[in-house]
Write the structure tokens for this entry.
Amino acid sequence: MIVLKRYILNDYITDDVRMVNPMMEINGFKVRPGFFDLNGALEFSCGVNFTVHTSNGTSCELLLFHPGEEEPYAIIPFPESYKIGDVYSMIVYDLKSEDFEYAYRVDGPYDEQKGLLFDKTKVLLDPYAQAVAGQEVWGHKRTRTYHARVVRDSFDWGVQPQSSREMSDLIIYELHVRGFTNHSSSGVKHPGTFAGLKEKIPYLKELGINAVELMPIFEFDEMINAREVDGKQLVEYWGYNTVDFFSPNASYAAAEEVNNEGKELKELIRELHENGIEVILDVVFNHTAEGNENGPFFSFKGFDNNIYYLLTPEGNYYNFSGCGNSLNCNHPVVQQMILECLRHWTVHYRVDGFRFDLASILGRDEDGMPMNNPPLLKSLAYDPLLRNVKLIAEAWDAGGLYQVGNFPASKRWAEWNGQYRDTMRGYLKGDFWEANSAAWRICGSGDLYGGYYSDGNSNYAGYNSCINFLTCHDGFTMYDLYSYNNKHNEANGWNNTDGANDNRSWNCGMEGDTKDPEVLKLRYRMIRNACAILMCSRGTPMFFSGDEFGNTKFGNNNSYCQDNEISWIDWSLLEKNKDLFEFFKFMIDYRKKHPVIRKKLDNAVCGMEAMHAHDVNAERMEVPQNAKTLAVSFAGYDRKKGKDDLVYVAVNAYWEEVKITLPNLANHGAWYLSVDTYGDEKGKYFYQEGEEIRIDREYVMKPRSIVVFTGREILR
């Protein structure tokens, strides 16, 4: 028999296991049935517990390898008596985690039309592996099969509480861990790593963002589709080709972490939290790196191909992801894996939220059809451990399912607001017919998520569903948005056929790089416009790293394969464009200081309605369809400050000056100019509290500019 006392200390398991007569010996190893409810591999003082499951497989073998070797030194078949239901579990005694790597082989029926691909010769990676061996060096071409390692989890999180910050209070900064610091200008000791990102925390804190959204950090193989174009090696740089869902990308660690994988990432997350910055992971549950019929075969295909993947009646792969396959997310087995995965990252890495790539796939049934109430989305929304983490959906997929405003939210899911991106990009560059829609976007997209900007009594519950963005990893940077009319993806090797064609961008009169001072002046004004409106819109703002100082991808709007200067952040631009950085800092701080932008407050004492949109005259109650200029006012009583919080933002998308009339403030109130993106004669674009300029109700806006006014009592 076996006696197990389990102690929970800082989220890891220690034990007091006394071995009393292992039940049998297999190929020289003492074994006994293991803990069937502990998926993956877990080390105890007596040995290691291995648990794995297959619904259609008929037998399973555990393979043990010396570290770095391809041939197993031991093969241990699971006895049939070590199986309950579909689960195999076995404790192998006298194993030490540092001495081995492991994998499995599964036998079973082979019938391609039924999606059964069992092959007892295939070496399979544990779907619940917490570390993948051989992935430690970035850009190293893999020449052997995938093996897993056992991880000792002894990280001490101390008494750090879980964040209680509301979604509407976040300012999200999307970044790529490698690209953020890999450029020679980054100035960090450990470029391209979790440690390098940790070195940049003082910068993030100065900028003022309070959440980072990390592009995929689950283990992926950047070399799977490696190729050479014009003498440069192209790789799967972004990381949207998951190899294993439970382990961090080993090549993102600066130090060797054998059997202690994740330590550097945990140190990064802990320090980000200590500096008031939440961590959101971009997770890819829509497909895996195994691809289609021609893709590699290393894990899910060999355990239960027809369970893990969506298959056509002929046994082929549905490709709603555009990457070869689609996970069968609403099968109970896959649901369980995804739920356990998110719990794992929430408990053992203290992650604050998840952004789900191509999330509409998560709502498809086994025939690929959209479901009205997908069980996976519902179970994630109501899971007790995930209760306070943020759940963010990219509410579309590559199969044509577009659910922005209609994602099955269960009142828990937020969405990337693709309509905000498209509408505001168009309106800011002069697509005047977008005016009415632009007003909705600034006011929180109440037409999509509930609430009406012209009615102070409306339901505003939907605003936590709205993630506003103009730029992200996919598409132009903010600088490129105003430097290129067309994409320039020639370096990707597909004759510029890849990437989106509908960018709603404008080169401000000259395509690409230029030294023309007037063109550059306009470009930077347009970037300030984009920043100002993003930070003054109801909903949660998000922007891409480097936008705050004019980083460029040289017109490439699909840099998924570019591990070079196209994708890496050029930190020398921070000094060159310091004024732009200071503007972003100000706008972020301004948003934080004015809760009325972020949420509905109590009714304003001055009598202004909570939210109001109009054109050049605040007395009008509508936004004409083709308005060249529109304005939105936010008003409410801030209980913490004991006074009204009043903000007025106006957008002049026209190429000529426009006179606007602001709302009339009662009770000795007045408007003060806080921001004018055109700038004054000294090149000043914003005014700190106390130095703002008091104006009368009329103000002349310069061409293609945005102004922000703060209402307050007249100082006497």
Remarks:
- DSSP finds 15 helices and 33 strands in the chain.
- The longest helix spans residues 517-535.
- The longest strand covers residues 629-638.
- The two ends are 84 Å apart (CA to CA).
